[in-house]
Amino acid sequence: MNLHEYQGKSILKSFGVAIQEGVVVDKVEDAVAKAKELSASTGTEWYVVKAQIHAGGRGKGTVEETGSRGVVLAKGIDKVEDTVKGILGGHLTTLQTNGVGKRVNKVLIAEDVYYPGESEPSEFYMSVLMDRDKGRNIIMYSTEGGMDIETVAEETPHLIFKEEIDPRVGLQGFQARKIAFNLGLSGKAMKEMTKFVAALYAAYEGCDASMFEINPVLKTSDDKIIAVDSKVTLDDNALFRHKDYAEMRDKTEEDPTEVEADEAGLNFVKLDGNVGCMVNGAGLAMATMDIIKMSGGNPANFLDVGGTADAERVEKAFQIILKDENVKAILINIFGGIVRCDRVAQGVVDAYKNMGNIPVPIIVRLQGTNAEEAKKLIDESGLNVHSAVQLQEAADLVKEILA
Fold this sequence. Notes:
By secondary structure, this protein is of the alpha+beta class.
């Protein structure tokens, strides 16, 4: 589950991570009053107004209706309302929104932390995530904060550092100090960074996150270390332990069909292909997507209906798949271990009849208990449904239909 910047920062702060303070606004008329509250608590006189959407590159993105950037500095309280008006309610397009603007329903008005002082501010990159090859958490960091980290990794890989955490002992003090040293810090800034790293890792573990990304981590002109941004992804499977975090979910930022499928108890991920998939079991779903690709098609989705593929469940799956206008065929691939194949076949037939007419051909491959009876049910249904027993047979049918 992805979080907005202000939500991620609230979690970081609860674990003792120093953050750039801010207030959230969802109405233009509340902007000035909220900004004054922020000034009263922080002393800031300039304000950074940030669009809150689930996408990176907001500072370089553009609001379609106004031409404003997604992150804008308001140099004074008199500039706040117009700045918020230029972002809030508009559609922000960034490199990560696939050319489609995302509506900005909230903005974060944050304090200015780039104030003058004894030294120049410095920006760093830092993230905590799982290295799946090694089966360990790592802290990845760089002196090149505030930039596109992918570009940094590609063009200057020697500037990307990784610190591997042994799960038996957790993050050690010497590792936090090593990170601060590699970032070129000393004195007060080094001590502050050491504390920052320890608190950040505690937050990552404590909230069952999949990823914490802070870009930039800022060393201020008076040597404080704070999180200026936050990109947080939580592990959906652990949300039962964090009811308060589960309430942070913003469904307006998610694909509507994925939300609908989730509410129906279906595991669904929308893709950009032309063949809809309906499968039971994640492993079989991945194999099915591979066979579609090998047969010349492209999977339009990942959809795992689970072990109870009855008529109601199959019908709902059909409805969700058919919301995608790019779908030219649907491949149903069910292994009848938990559920009998003939019951699945009857569910497909009943769902088809309940829906009236399905405008695309359907290939049904059922294997397992009562597979022969299931094939007979499909073949004698009189519907635009093609049955198969072997997976290659189903793939050949997909290829024939798409030709």
